[in-house]
Known about the structure:
Elements: E1 5-8, E2 12-18, E3 33-39, H1 41-51, E4 56-63, H2 66-76, E5 81-88, E6 94-100, E7 106-111, H3 120-124, H4 127-132, E8 135-138, H5 144-156, E9 160-163, E10 182-183, H6 187-194, H7 201-213, E11 218-222, E12 228-232, E13 235-239, H8 252-265, H9 270-284, H10 297-300
Parallel strand pairs: 1-4, 1-8, 2-6, 4-5, 8-9, 9-10, 10-11
Antiparallel strand pairs: 2-3, 6-7, 11-12, 12-13
Amino acid sequence: MHAKVVVVGSLNMDLVARAQRLPRAGETLAGESFATVPGGKGANQAVAAARLGAAVAMIGNVGDDAYGQQLRQALLDEQIDCQGVAVCAGVSSGLALIVVDASSQNSIVIIPGGNGQLMPESVQVFDVLLQGAEVIICQLEVPAQTVAYTLERGRALGKTVILNPAPCTGPLPLNWYGAIDYLIPNESEAQALTGLPVTDLASAEAAASHLRSLGVKNVIVTLGAQGALFANAQGFKHFPAPVVQPVDTTAAGDTFVGGFAAALARGTEEGEAIAFGQRAAALSVTRAGAQPSIPYLAELQP
Ligand code: RIB
């Protein structure tokens, strides 16, 4: 069976400390707990799409260390096709140092490790996976040239191409926009992409309009508890977020992207797919950790 959703992206081991608050510069803070959890934006989105009903394949790199084996196994446990997940000799696996505070907010530092060595050729070799896909997803935790190659190849094959521009420090290369069917930034990413402040629905509309003017067809700005703002040629639509008591927001955006992609891949109309992704993300924030927090389809059935 062809994987309907193919993710080209990162795998990280998340080293997660919980503390009352995030440390200030120069401060040593006593934490409350520590856990080692499989994560990485690419792998999280692959797991979300798989748990939420899609056949999924992943293209990415791990290092030749114990974390690499665990990260690969975590995907295999979800029946994700890992033929495209390579082990890089002499390199560590990607790492994410995460602090989560009492209000469920986090701060994250990533060390790319093997993710930094994912080259366009690594994707080219698995072109058959892209050919069989309905939906192709990228993020920005692997080299830009690999993202650029994948977006362009996805467009050439006529696939639905999603870019979650995370993490993001500035505008994207202008020639990327025309290859993207759905650009899905959060508030801070939308701000970094456009240089416009994004704090609420009105400012999200302004940022989405700017991004659409650069050639991307559909923009979904995720706004946390304020929901999501969808912009396309017809205009704007606001999707309010389900109200939940958050425990840990890590991977909420990834759960949204993976859930949205899984729904699109089975032919769900895009508005319904957004609402489905939101329900999945809302459930994920009520649980700790990246991949452990991602719900299964059965948990979302009414
Ligand atoms: O989006 C959450 C993810 O960001 C974490 O799992 C961490 O690995 C970083 O990539």
